[in-house]
């Protein structure tokens, strides 16, 4: 029987083959993959307990969300999830934690047809009496049809701005857990899964391949990620605050808190995208087909100097927020 590091890999990170991309199995220096299809999209995201997950988070949720945020990046490219690599640094061996992590991870892997084809498992050292927290890096790969793929560039003046689902829920849940905001028990219960188990919008992303001109997933916040689209597309844009879809649980908060959460909170893993008005009907159909709420929230215009994104209110005013969104190294 293998011991130590390799026992962890055998027990928690080796699974029967599934999905369309197959390798020779975990155990060699490289995964060698025979891939049908023409293009691949690749993304990587690193996550640490304390930064991306509360220290008391359930290992099942950590495993699920670690993969979900990567699948969300693939969704933003319109790519279908196929394979991923998992690198994990652990301060100590805790089989109960690992079993929960692996269950949550593999539940989403299997339901999305995204196979774990390799990775790396290390112990994080203790330096000066402190251990680095559990740190996870996932690299995910997806397939795209020949010549296709969504990017943040491509938004054109006259395009509509759309967003999927509702935004701000995960942030409100986090603020409640931090004790900064007080949600009613029912509202809190409704919002926790939005923070712990976000739904990557891969079916929607694929359906948008022939419809959207630019797309991003909302990880840092609606304004920040829409801002990336505007910057990479060389355009400006404006959105109407009252059009931004927020859940009924969020509506119980003050208008300022709703704005902070929905516009700048992040952790939503919804898609924000642009498309010409001529595509609107087909986009609505894509929403129905993929059972995803889609809302038109604004318009793209020619690039203006100064702030390139304006949030207007029905009363004619301009909505301002303290930040545009989450920034790991905000001053
Ligand atoms: N350390 C790095 N080395 C190379 N590229 C990076 C690094 N960090 C971020 N990037 C790239 O910078 C861009 C912006 O990163 P990020 O905002 O994290 O994207 P996302 O929200 O899709 O994860 C992405 O294209 C990402 O691949
Ligand atoms: C303990 C804890 N603090 C803060 C957050 C909120 N949060 C952490 S990272 C992040 C933004 C997205 O993470 P990032 O690493 O920037 O992902 P990327 O944009 O690269 O996909 C948010 C909103 C959280 N989920 N948990
Ligand atoms: Mg990133």
UniProtKB/TrEMBL annotation:
Residues 27-143 form the PurM-like N-terminal domain. One of its GO terms (molecular function) is magnesium ion binding. Mg(2+) 3 binds at residues 29, 73, 217. Substrate binds at residues 52, 267, 326. Keywords: ATP-binding, Kinase, Magnesium, Metal-binding, Nucleotide-binding, Thiamine biosynthesis, Transferase. Mg(2+) 5 binds at residue 220. Pathway: Cofactor biosynthesis; thiamine diphosphate biosynthesis; thiamine diphosphate from thiamine phosphate: step 1/1. Mg(2+) 4 binds at residues 29, 43, 73. One of its GO terms (biological process) is thiamine diphosphate biosynthetic process. Its EC number is 2.7.4.16. Mg(2+) 2 binds at residues 45, 73. Residues 156-303 form the PurM-like C-terminal domain. It is an enzyme of class 2 (transferase). ATP binds at residues 119-120, 152, 219. Mg(2+) 1 binds at residues 44-45, 120. Reaction mechanism of ThiL seems to utilize a direct, inline transfer of the gamma-phosphate of ATP to TMP rather than a phosphorylated enzyme intermediate. Belongs to the thiamine-monophosphate kinase family. PANTHER family: THIAMINE-MONOPHOSPHATE KINASE. This is Thiamine-monophosphate kinase. It comes from Sutterella wadsworthensis 2_1_59BFAA. The lineage of its organism: Bacteria, Pseudomonadati, Pseudomonadota, Betaproteobacteria, Burkholderiales. The gene is thiL.
């Amino acid at each position: 029987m293998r011991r130590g590091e390799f026992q962890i890999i055998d027990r928690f990170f080796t699974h029967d083959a599934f999905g369309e991309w197959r390798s020779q199995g975990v155990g060699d220096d490289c995964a060698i993959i025979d891939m049908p299809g023409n293009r691949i999209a690749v993304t990587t995201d690193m996550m640490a307990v304390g930064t991306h997950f509360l220290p008391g988070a359930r290992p099942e949720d950590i495993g699920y969300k670690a993969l979900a945020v990567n699948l969300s990046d693939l969704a933003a490219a319109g790519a279908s999830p196929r394979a991923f690599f998992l690198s994990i640094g652990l301060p100590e061996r805790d089989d109960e934690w690992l079993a929960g992590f692996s269950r949550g991870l593999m539940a989403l892997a299997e339901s999305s047809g995204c196979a774990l084809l390799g990775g790396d498992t290390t112990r994080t050292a203790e330096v000066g009496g402190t251990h680095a927290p559990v740190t996870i890096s996932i690299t995910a790969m997806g397939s795209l049809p020949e010549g296709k793929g969504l990017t943040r560039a491509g938004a054109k003046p006259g395009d509509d701005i759309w967003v999927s689902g509702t935004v701000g829920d995960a942030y409100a849940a986090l603020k409640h857990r931090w004790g900064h905001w007080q949600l009613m028990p029912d509202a809190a219960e409704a919002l926790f899964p939005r923070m712990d188990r976000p739904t990557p919008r891969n079916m929607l992303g694929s359906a948008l391949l022939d419809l959207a001109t630019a797309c991003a997933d909302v990880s840092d916040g609606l304004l920040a990620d829409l801002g990336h689209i505007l910057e990479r597309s060389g355009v400006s844009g404006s959105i109407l605050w009252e059009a931004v879809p927020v859940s009924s649980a969020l509506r119980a908060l003050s208008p300022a808190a709703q704005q902070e959460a929905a516009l700048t909170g992040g952790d939503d893993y919804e898609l924000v995208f642009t498309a010409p008005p001529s595509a609107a009907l087909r986009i609505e159909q894509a929403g129905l087909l993929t059972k995803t709420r889609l809302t038109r929230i604004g318009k793209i215009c020619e690039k203006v100097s100064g702030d390139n994104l304006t949030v207007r209110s029905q009363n004619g005013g301009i909505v301002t927020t303290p930040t545009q969104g989450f920034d790991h190294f905000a001053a």
